Amino acid sequence: MDRPETWDSLAQRVVERGRVVLLIGAPDTGKTTLCQFLVRMALEEGLRTAYIDADVGQSVIGPPTTLGMTLLERGELTPYPEPSLLYFIGATSPARHLLPTVAGLRKLLDGSLRRGAEFVVVDTTGLVAGELGFSLKFYKVEALQPTDVVVLEREREVEHILRALRARAKPELHLLLPSPQVIRRDQVQRQSYRLDRFRSYFLEATFREVELSRCVLINPSFPLLGDGGGEERLRGRLIGLIDPEGFALGLGVFLGIKEGRAQLLTPVGRLQDVRALQVGSMAVHGVAHNLSRSETGVS
Questions:
Q1: Is pLDDT at 298 greater than 80 in this prediction?
Q2: What 3-state class would DSSP assign to 56?
Q3: Rounded CA gap, 131 and 112, in Å?
Q4: Is the omega angle on the peptide bond into residue 81 within 30 degrees of 0, that is, cis?
Q5: Which residue, 48, 74, 226, 274, is most buried by CB atoms nearer than 10 A?
């Protein structure tokens, strides 16, 4: 896609050491493409650049249901960068997970700064409408305290958020029209993208077991599950494999519990650092087609 001239002028204003740039816009306004453009411009300037992807449904950094951060110093930005850090949300929409989304985003920003990021770009979901959209985007700004907020807007659909932000001395606001070359995607295309990303992620998954005596089973929907049984209801649910810092080492699919061990399907090879298994709010069907019941040992 040919970039609009406004992108070049935006990059000249925001690409410098110490800037944190947050992008806001409805679906199909070109946020991700603009984010990647700013990342490339920062890399050309020699800045150690963090690219944070907060779009849990249409993620490009890490699998769907996660927030991802990649830290880049030089070279080309690939279409699907390897994550430096992941934060598990466990759903493909932030609508019912506003607090984890905002908290996780702050953790990723802090993690990128601790690792020496000099410039940070944050992509977001297209949820901007109504009270939910306002709360999510306004409190992302509150939590991240970005130096710049870039708003891609067609017809004042982000005005309710902008009105609140204009009352603040910071951040600096940049209002842009979406590129006319943006390709709109319908719900079927979005679902197909998520499914392809899940299939790609779990392509090399294998059966693994984790001793529950050395890690915690966290289920926000049923917080006492580990003490009171009922594990059957979790079969097929998405699981985040959480490290001691609270970041996700990766994803798994919960198969059951046998003799004190959680049984999972996961592509994560090293499980020694897993300190918690966090249950997501969705089930993932079809990713275990390459493993028979006899191979997994699950009856």
A1: no
A2: coil
A3: 30
A4: no
A5: 274
Write the DSSP symbol of residue 96: T
User: Residue 70 and residue 43: Cα distance in Å, rounded?
Assistant: 13
Q: Report the largest interatomic distance among the alpha carbons of the chain, rounded to a whole angstrom.
A: 62
Residue 50 to residue 128: CA distance in whole angstroms:
24
Cβ 252 vs Cβ 284: under 8 Å: no
Say what the pLDDT of residue 224 is.
Answer: 46
* Sheet with 19-25: strands ordered across: 85-88, 66-72, 49-53, 119-123, 19-25, 148-152, 172-176
DSSP summary character for residue 179: P
Instruction: Render pLDDT for 199-215 as a digit per residue (tens, 0 to 9).
Output: 999 999 999 999 989 99
Q: Which residue ranges form the domains of the chain, and what is each CATH number?
A: 5-188 (3.40.50.300), 202-296 (2.40.30.330)
Whole-number percent of the chain with pLDDT over 70: 91
CA distance 275 to 244: 6
